[in-house]
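Q: Sequence in, structure out?
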Amino acid sequence: MATVLRYLTYQGIPIWRNIFVIQWISQILSGLFVVVLVTWFFINIGNAVHDRDIPYGFSFLSREYQTPIGQHFLAYQSSDSFLYAFIVAGTNTLIVSIVGIFLATALGVFVGVSRMSSNWLVAKISLAYVEFFRNVPLLVHLFFWFYIVLEFPPVREGYVIGGLFYINNAGFSLPWLSPTSFQAAGTWGLIFVISLIGGMVLSRRLSRRESVTGISSYPLLSGFALPFITGVVVWWILGIVGWGSPFLVSIPEPHGAFGRISGGFTAAGGLIALLVGLVTYTAAFIAEIVRAGIQSVGRGQTEASRAVGLSGMATLRHITFPQALRVIVPPLISQFLNLTKNSSLAGAIGYSDLTNVAKTMTQTAPAVSIFILIMAAYLAISLTYSGIGNLYNRHIRIVGSS
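A: Exactly. Output:
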């Protein structure tokens, strides 16, 4: 018996009392349980599909979709395939989520910092914003902004600003860059992206130098100036070598008896309402995350920075906010994922997002297969955002600990 008990020990501790062994066994059993549960779930789905003769499969993806998509950022025709239409709809969702994340983050940080302002009026307005937008359902927000857009004048009676901007109940039209050729536009775009990365690296180095030496190095200004100057110079060089301008400015203009706007870029009313609703709603949650993160930094840090002569804004930028990021980033990633998934409500206000277009596809294609594609697409987008956020979170933790 003593020999058996000796073999049932790990690092001199009986395995039923060794916390390391218990953790591994519990994780393995939990993983097996999840695998069995998922397998049982899909087997039941497969049996139900087979017994009820529900159509499935993905052969329909090569067929012509033959249905228009109202708003699309990629070139699209009704004769394109189901697969391409799915990609077009996914691009619509992706663009809305990316733009919404940037705008919601900027607005949320501004409101979160304003909530802690020493100005009583600014703090109370920020508090009212958070409490109102956070406690009203998102779908109500979307309908509210959508009906505001519908109250704008019709196309022929809409507002015209400087002959360049058109605002009406169909959307907002503005001048837009149109590529002249793939060669010139691609070359300029590649060099601009490289210079943008160089600007980010330059900004970080100058910021580090400023914090070490105390000499003003203007990191943000330098970081923005590098890609701007590079873009202008490359644009000029492309014209000299005979490739011409990489882009031409397309001006929106009314055409036809109904005054439809052609040229430029037109953001449809549904897109505007969706973006405004998602941004204002999500920013209220981000503001609370930012406020909690800033308050998690010890008050002594702020008092010490003010004692050495730093202004309130400098203290926030160099002392408080960098330390608060370690608390802010994890819940902030969750809000990014929520914004992406909440964009699936776009169908309620007529925007052609992934869910709305896919739901239309179910009229002529297997619904089971389409919803599997929808789940896979949202899962891929969410995991990508989560991975990027986790990498950044790991980076700031390493920088903060060093």
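The two ends are 52 Å apart (CA to CA).
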